[in-house]
Amino acid sequence: MRRRKKNGGSDLNKIYVVGIGPGAYEQMTVKAAEILKKCDVIVGYTVYAELLKEYFPDKEFLTTPMQKEIERCRMAFEEAKNGKKTAMVCSGDAGIYGMAGLMLELSADYPDIKIEVVPGVTAALGGSAVLGAPLGHDCAFVSLSDLMTSWEVIEKRLLAAAKADFIICLYNPSSRKRSDYLRRACDIVLKEKSPDTVCGIVRNIARSKEEMKVMTLEELKSSQVDMFSTVFIGNKDTKVIEGRMVTPRGYRIDRFRI
Amino acid sequence: MRRRKKNGGSDLNKIYVVGIGPGAYEQMTVKAAEILKKCDVIVGYTVYAELLKEYFPDKEFLTTPMQKEIERCRMAFEEAKNGKKTAMVCSGDAGIYGMAGLMLELSADYPDIKIEVVPGVTAALGGSAVLGAPLGHDCAFVSLSDLMTSWEVIEKRLLAAAKADFIICLYNPSSRKRSDYLRRACDIVLKEKSPDTVCGIVRNIARSKEEMKVMTLEELKSSQVDMFSTVFIGNKDTKVIEGRMVTPRGYRIDRFRI
Question: Where does chain B have alpha helices with state H?
């Protein structure tokens, strides 16, 4: 876990920024599981640390709540500086709306510590597998959280993605303070996509109480979602096959009908 | 592996459509590895089957070359019909430009066979981890292959994604017949993004001879890529930190400088 390399007299420690996938142990990569098994301390968001304690009961866990991400990253750097084998965990992937970027930004303050990013199954992929195959063609990921991005930018991206008929996957579709954001997002997308566009919601991907629902864009507009939901809006070719959401890539299967 | 459920007198067989990640065994999910260990036959594209033979030498492999995807899917259904525990493998994820959609489309012809989709680390995530954290904000995935999508649609999507300042990840950026497509794509993106936009190329993700390079959009335009390359075009905030490509999410780290 530690890369021994002389660097101004001190050892170069490594922090692994690990995407743990949607939540279940089995949806972690083999590499992510190996790293967490070998590390001394696991740093992460409180909710995901709780999930991991079940699988790695003998590890030291350090957590911070939401909106304390910078403090969380610094905790990880301090552990690594003290010689601990350290992993910073992110739900889903390490990079997609994850901690890898912030860790690399802050790494300037810790020149002796090297960052290795370990990818994982992000919610778009985990949720897509539950729904069927909604992301079978060009797609765009948009977070509806306006904590760090202005709503004007979010709106512009939604409209552009809808206009060019991207499949759209919405991250952070709701929170207590943003309970009407999904409706607002649907209103924008409805300017360009048909109300009949096939959509889907997945909740608690790969955890107990996993739920999925396929519906139209018009129905999505009045749907209730929470922060554990991921939302999919199809393109013009997306269809429902035996209750599942499927976006064809474009294979001419009619020519090959048996 | 088999779900015993009475369905018109016959057992309901299951095919797993498995995303195997970028290529290395350790970047497969724990679930993907377990399924491949337990199955009798693995169906896939010739190149990826070769990769897997190393890890699962005692399995039966059935392959078809590119552009024989429909035949490949039917082979999998026939194996499952004959009672074999069958996995259809896809590089990266099962859904993102993978076989899950086509398998679900064809499943109408095989009512006794159930499809389970097993997600995996797609090239955008695997490549992103190698580069650093290019996908730290809203992003769009566009395939430059015009085998099944018209170039007009591809062009429209590239322009829309560039205009709304999405990070863009290009799949299938080149092939023998499409050697100038990356240059054409860059010309479109350059209408909206600065020539200084930070970009990256990753080749042979998680395989031997893995390579990465960070450059400007102007430099990307004249770069050579092949079908094993994934290309990343940053947004206006993407920067280079110690040789790595990083798109900040928007945390105000200046306020927290130590």
Answer: 30-38, 46-53, 69-81, 100-106, 123-131, 151-163, 181-189, 217-221
